[in-house]
Amino acid sequence: MAGRGAGRTGRPTARRRGGAAAPAPTTLEVDGLPVRLVRKRIKNVNLRVKADGQVEVPAPLHAADAFVASFVREKRPWIEAKRAEMAASPRAEAAAASPEEVAAWRAVVEACVPSLVAAWEPIMGVKAGRLAYRNMTSRWGSCQPATGRICINVRLALYPPECLEYVVVHELCHLRERGHGQRFKDLMDTYMPDWRERRAKLR
Question: Which pLDDT score, from 0 to 100, does residue 19 have?
Answer without folding.
Answer: 55
